[in-house]
Amino acid sequence: MIHIQSFTFNAFSENTYILFDETREAVIIDPGCYDKRERDALTGFVEQNQLKPVKLLITHAHVDHVLGNAFVKRHYGIELYLHESDLPVLKSVKVLAPHYGMAAYEEAEVDQFLVAGEIVTFGHSKLEVRFVPGHAPGHVAFISHADRFVMGGDVLFRGSVGRTDFPLSDFDTLVTSIRTQLYTLPDDYTVYPGHMGTTTIGQEKRSNPFVRPANG
């Protein structure tokens, strides 16, 4: 069984997640930790629970989701995984971060490119990678079918969807991603988003005002 620990980091109130199972192996998803207090919160949880981070997974490379990339890679000696289509977004962060008052941002190189349909493993656990562009060109979601949840980044929120007023974003593409890659999951799957609280696939299919099911 996968256990999920969430943190809310940086000025954008971004959700960073640590996933781990009974083996104590763990993956860190979207490390938004920027300052020492936030980094200490993340590393303190890992140490307190005797976890062994083995992979750094990024849903997409907008600035608020990658502020801790270099720190996490260096601190744990692990590889960074990102979809290749989001590489231009990641490269732009070094220019954008100072404009948000985050001049101490450090770049980190991508080690492995994620591919739609591949299975990411850690301990006894598996996460399916689904390609869900729209909010960002290389956005992915990580899905546990065994534990029935989605690590969705900034694609689908409770009663909302990811913004598409950024460069390389597109609303129609986002809608298609949600309908074909997320709304096709069972209704009871929990969605852990990149901001705000959790929701379920069923709740959003019934009431999300931005994206109705294709046959709805």
TrEMBL record:
Give the Gene Ontology MF terms in alphabetical order.
hydrolase activity; metal ion binding
Keywords, sorted A to Z: Hydrolase, Metal-binding, Zinc
Pinpoint the Metallo-beta-lactamase domain residues.
13-195
User: What is the required cofactor set for this protein?
Assistant: Zn(2+)
InterPro entries in UniProt: MBL_Glyoxalase_II (IPR051453), Metallo-B-lactamas (IPR001279), RibonucZ/Hydroxyglut_hydro (IPR036866)
Family matches, as PANTHER family: HYDROXYACYLGLUTATHIONE HYDROLASE GLOC
Query: What is the name of the protein in this document?
Result: MBL fold metallo-hydrolase
Task: State the organism named in the record.
Answer: Larkinella rosea
